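Run log, item B.
One chain of 666 residues. Sequence copied directly from the ordering sheet:
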Amino acid sequence: MQTDNMQIDLAGRVKNTNLSPSKALWPLFEAITNSIHAIEDAGIKKGRIHLMIERDNTQQSLKGSDFAPIKTILIEDNGIGFNDNNLNSFRTSDSTFKAKRGGKGIGRLLWLKVFEHVQIDSVFQQNEVFYQRCFEFSLTKQGISDLEENQTDKTERKTIVKLSQFKEPYQKKCPKSLEKIALRIIEHFLIYFMFDHCSIILQDNDDNTLILNELYQERIRPYTEKGSFQLKNETFEIMTLRFYESSINESQVHLCAYQRDVWAERIDKYLPDLGNRIEDQTSGKKFILLAYIESHYLDQHVNAERTDFNIDDEESLFVSKSEVIEMAMSHIKEQMKTYLDAINATKKQRVENYVQKEAPRYRHILKHRAECLHTIPLKLLDKPQSMDLELYKVSVQLELELMEKGKRFLTTKIEDIKDLPQYQAEYNKYLEQENELSKAKLAEYVAHRDIILKLLESHLKQSDNGKYSKEKSLHSLIFPVGQTSDDIAYDDHHLWIIDERLSYHKYLASDKALNRLEPIVLNDKKRPDIIVFNSPLVFVEEESRPFSSIVIIEFKRPMRQDSDDPVEQVYGYINKIRNEDVTDKEGMLISVRENTPFYCYIICSLTKKMRNLFELKDFTKSPDELGYFYYHKNLKAYIEVISYEKLLKDAKERNRVLFDKLNLPR
């Protein structure tokens, strides 16, 4: 008879066996696999597997849940049983006894990974004599204990594996309802159910019973289709099914080995429109799509835990996982064409509505990259920000392609053109796409201006607490405080709100002390306009040396009642720059010519106090009475006073024709 020792460090081996709590049912799957193999080895036609789920009903009453937690699972079959060969294999770590079937000799280790104890009771026939063999399997030094084996007068094979004391991390993640467990088993052993290897009955101690074969025939088989594809001289069989009652919520592709599920990936990672549940066009019911792929190649490359494959993820000399998935997706795409066409029609309509009403800058995509709309996941259609991001990606890709085409056309010599009509057609198409892209960029820029003006308008309104925005906020909206024109991108400032010409300059500084400016250095640490908002904006027009003109902008807080005289402030800046020694950053003197003009903008609210100040200084009121202007002959300075109301109104009017072209609301 047999000894009862296992020559391995069982506790260490189990500890080093990786199994996520989300795979809490895998020990059950391993036991079912053993039962299927045992039935095959017995050579019987009417194999049966009976699964009993025992619940801890005391916990149900305590927690008030619909289903009591599972504490024990029993697996019974009428297979060949634990004869000497199977027992020796059971004792041997990483046994190769079932290698031809994909067995890695570690399945029983998963039992102890998830359950505290395992009991086995097996009636088997050996040399025409029936025996009964019982033992316990646990994380002890010996592993196997209480081994008993005797002849028996029983004449039917039967093996019961009892998995006891479900460990908490796995118990929490295990499905509770009998139906969910049944569907998970069917999902995992789908190929076995296709060939109807044996009957599988699932029962619990609340007298609920499910015959899994009938469940498969009724709910799953009618929606199953088979196909195949070739890849580097390897044949892959693919079976797809529409699963209406799956416990999972996303469509998946599964790679199988030895007729068992091993590795899964979401289909919407490759086909975005087949994510989550898909609506049946006939019944209106929703389903997920499951694809199962098997081949001899996958059988030979499954890993020890049967959780993945020992093959390259990316393309290589041999078949890679990515190549298998790519071929499978092509097959699925063709098979689901009717569904995808309907989804794409809906997507196209929604995207077109979004582009027409919200994002006209992407109109060129509808004309030149309509096929790319298929790549936008259906779930993003109700999220404008996500949809905008996807359209932006398509637009950038198109722009890069056009840049490459433009380079080719510019470098192509006339004598190298072999087919002139074809070249002319391609060139005309390029020009058309480039023109559409330019229009799209203009539309994007105009839409951005509309947003900025709305933001400015909100800053000028009185808040709920009766206060107005500080000048620093308005200043930052037009040009970031503390930055220079060398620090920020061209699109990050909005000088056009004041004057379109201000965008074209040599250098601009915002909130910088006069002794820290780049093109000129003044021996003065004072910050202009420090009381109100710390500093003026100073920048240079044209590229003539030293300067053709200098512009100063001063902001005052909306509706601010103070005693500061902004006119005297800008006069002070002009005198300081014109009268003191000015050097460049290398220390060389720069001559600010006597006739160098200064253009000064004072932006403020025209309170009665401010109006009185400007009128006492002989400023001329603008025709719309929303501003003032004055020319100081001696200082060669033109000063324009712009009220915030005028600033917003004039900016809107200058851009109105552009807004109207884009159908932006007034």
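Observations after the first pass:
- DSSP finds 19 helices and 23 strands in the chain.
- The chain has four domains: 10-212, 221-335, 351-445, 471-651.
Flagged for discussion on Thursday.
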